[in-house]
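[retry 2/3] Relaxase: previous attempt timed out, resubmitting with same input.
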Amino acid sequence: MVQAAIVTKWKFVMSNNKKFQKYINYIDRDEATRSKEFQQYNILESDGYNQYMENPEKSSGLFTANKNRLSKEERNTVKKLFRQAQKNDSLMWQDVVSFDTNWLIEVGLYDPKAKILNEEKIMNAIRVAMNEQLKAENLRNSAVWTAAIHYNEIHHIHVHIAIVEPEPTREYGTFTRKDGSTYEARKGYRSKRNVDRFRSQVMSQLLDRDQPLAKISSMIRTQLGNHKGNMRYLPDTELKYLYNKIYESLPPDRGKWKYNMNVLNAIRPTIDRFISTYLNAYEKEGYKELQNLLDENVAFYMNLYGEGTKEFQRAKDFKTNKNKELYTRLGNALLKEMSEQNKKENEIPTKSTSVDWNKLVENQYQKRNDTHSKNIDLSKVKKALRKDFQSIKNQQIYLKNMREREQQEQGLIR
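[retry 2/3] Relaxase: success.
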């Protein structure tokens, strides 16, 4: 099973927790001391996550939303804000973002020989993701945070983050202890959806996912899924055969000629065959590029969440859904063209239109004759001819009446 490239974990403590005070105490200490005494202020070590949370061998030093490095004076300012938060009964959230070292090497963020990490890119990714996370949790205008990159030879490189509210906005709630007693405390819950998005945004920033996702949408909407011209006249024998087969199988009501309508369930496989043949014959390179982009997206989520997870399955579903979107667009374009064709073939001329009435009847007869000429069942042929004869007879009567009315208005019949 593929291991997740990024793992996140979070926890919170109340203001009276000893580790809240310990974190404050170590904010303005040097990095060697902070690394050595890491367990004094780490609240995640007792939550089954200690395999990534040993005392780091070294640390990047504290960074914030605006600074890569803090001066002594800036550390003191941050320390005062954390003290203010504790005094005002704020919660302290701690997050850890752990990176798989092999993945960091693979994507060029870590040089194992020189032991150099692209810290700036990691910091910027954390900043963007934190900004969105705090916004989603309604904390962006009230929270402050600090973070540090921790290195350890045994386990993964990870980022440790601490968040507080100097002027708390989280409401109080009533909670029940294991012994059944209750207590009042601020609500520290963060939604799983927001936490998952945080992880996804970190990776998206590191790999710049916006561009390939935008390209997938663009290819479907404006390139592959936006066919211009008549599919009816494409110079391909199989496509012509499939076109006629689809057209002849459509229901009488043109209003139901939509790709995803249930009434087309029986004919949809033939429509899909037409689209597949068209894409491989006329859009081969573009279609191949689209599939590569979709496969890369699946691999992205496999690395992010690990193989076999629900999130990985959703990524596979994303590929399926995007291909379905492409087929829907092309299918509807094909059916729209057929609808226009059918509309023209069945137009009834108005009395003001100059028409060769005999030619019209002849064309109608020829069209119907062509439609049934491939059927070798004699009884069906006879039945079809009887229907054709009656239809043409009815049309002749109708057209005769139309002619007479037209002549009357022109004063030709007195």
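[retry 2/3] Relaxase: The first strand starts at residue 6 and ends at 13.
[retry 2/3] clearing retry counter.
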